[in-house]
Write a structure and sequence with these properties.
The protein is an alpha+beta fold. It is built from 31 helices and 18 strands. A hairpin with a 2-residue loop joins strand 4 and strand 5.
Length: 816
Amino acid sequence: MSKEKSNDSFIHKLATIIVDKRYLFFLLYGFALVFCIFSSKWVEVENDVTTYLPEDTETRQGIVAMNDNFKTYATARIMISNITYEKAEEINDMMLDIDGVQLVSFDLSPDHYKDACALYDINFNGEVDDPICQQAMDTIYKNLEGYDVYVDTPIGYDEIKDLNKEMSVILIIAVIIITVVLVMTSRAYAEVPVLLLTFGMAAILNMGTNFMCGKISFISNSVAVVLQLALAIDYAIILCHRFSDEHETLCSREACIEALSKAIPEISASSLTTISGLIALSFMKFAIGLDLSIVLIKSVLLSLMSVFTLMPGLLVLFSPLIDKTKHKKLLPDITPVGKFAVMSRRIMPVIFAVVLVGAFFLSNKCPYCYSYNDVETTKMSERQMSIKEIKNTFGSSNMVALVMPSGNYNAEKSILNELQNRPEVKSTLALSSMEALKGYTLTDSLTPRQFSELIDLDYEVAQALYSAYAIDHNQYGEILNGLSEYDIPLFDMFLFMKSQITSHNITLSGDAQETMDDLFEQLETAQLQLQNDKYSRMVVYLNLPEESPATFNFLNDMRNIIGKHYDNDYYVVGNSTSSRDLASSFSKDNLIISILSALFVILVLLFTFQSIALPVLLIIVIQGSIWINFSFPTITHQPLYFLGYLIVNAIQMGANIDYAIVISSHYQELKAKMTHKEAIIRALNSSFPTVFTSGTIMASAGLLIGNLSANPVISIMGNCLGRGTIISIILVLGVLPSILVLGDSFIERTSFKFQGLSKNTHISKGNMKVKGHVRGYISGMVDADIDGVLNGEFNGSLLTSGQIIDKGDQDNEEKN
């Protein structure tokens, strides 16, 4: 009778097509699988978090200026422990003789030799990805075999490759845990492979379509698969349970059609809360939020598509095996939890309110950090342990680059002198501090007489060289005034002299030419690193940590020092400036995500429950779990990387709210036909398998990522997500039921109906014909469009345009 109506609905027709054309869908997914296996290799991954900084930040602009104008040579810090100074000197000489090594800094100062440990600062002749650098490092490793060596260098370090290995291990363990959880919550063992095949296809589709997003961050690339599994496995479970219910009275095909037609709106509504939380991420000023949002929303949508179009065919295909492998309920009821909720309904909300206030203040004092170089993870790679050992022995190295318009050597020298006199500055590197010959620096200006004496050049030749320089630079007045007082910076004169020698306008003797060739090689290296026609660059090493109020204040001092000589177009760039820029955008991003994620979820819940109070209560519970979650770093005095907070905040609100929705929905349905005490107990027992399954998977995924990844960003995000999910489960099972029972009357008073829908309540018994949208109980809960005959007791709400015709009246009409 109800079937006739459903046959006319669009969703039912769509479900019928999907089930009947299942082999066509199998074929299409087969093609998609092959394509995605290849296309997943096309994905470009961005490993530099600073790339996602807003374009108007100083760090982003400065990095762009440096990348476009300078060459940054590879470096390494190598520490050898338990070594004498004499032996350390021998190793220093050995390193200098290695091809590809440009400079080795080592001396008896505490900066390089301390407590029988030697630290070598090495500069190479190429960039990080230059083969000559890798060859040089390989030679160094080989020559240092047998020593206690600790190495800090980006050469040969592939972070993305290491992350992929870690995530492969995490995914394997996660699948094992998920399989065990699904077996415990399934109704038949053969349901598990259906669920895993559905998710596996969705995951492959997501990985294979990431190339369409352009370049994605290493965070999105590494955690998307595991988070997709945790976020979207519920959808497949809902359809599976629907199929199981329908299959009790219908054949596999009909059961799957009915199950799919009922599950599509239910699953779509459930996904809205998750998607809305992820959408909030996209509003971050820090663009990595948009990157992660796009990838994860795409993963949710592809999961929905796989559940709606692939899983129905798999259920029909596996139906005989599902029938044979049915088993008894493995999860116990949690009746004691429900009874406790009833008993503590006047106490638990008060305790929760007190905890909520405390958690709010503690979470607001969370010690955020904006650089993860000092963050220690549960698992540490060999490189991270080496960096930690070097830092513990010799301290950290905080480098800041100053980029300013080139050409004003006097200004550069003045800036450098002022910085070198500051106690916050450890050392500097700039053209104006690099010695050329006989105590002169590269930016010192010399007259023809001084220059001829410096390089043992005939005075007449030096004068001719200066005249040629003046003509080449259109400085004819210097020639007319006489060249004796005409002074030119050494760096500019050496570059001009090199061009004249190359064009054979000047010829030097053998020894002089050899000396100049060595000098020209050093000049070329200095020019590539420190100056071009547009910008000059200085490198300043600070005695300050990367993040501290003192560091940020000194960055402002550095800008003020540079600002005395330049109006604009100068940049201060480094990890410290990146941390400062991230810190300045964090407060705004945090406010945006907190407000939008809660707002989006509230809107979804308003339409779902048609109540003002209930969505607010659910949001308070989940927001409380977020505050409690981020109180832990305050209590343990452990720095929390800010990005982990922002991402987990949005995901926890969007995903964990589903647990509260499931319990509330069951309670709202059951309380209409039994007492509130009985309803909450039944609601918890009915909801527990869903909450247990989804919560266990999410918590396991998060904790696995947190404890098995050495990447600080990924690890922090995983730990926070896992801990937050566990807290959410505890609150929705232990606190929410008491709040629902206690606040039931308040929830009812704030309920509403959308305009255009009027409610007429009828109580009838016996055979009757019902036409209209019904919400009520007819030997069970009904919420559907019905056009047929019911036999039973009716107690529910009838919406506009509906009518009830008692069976007796209908019979009289038919007789007439």
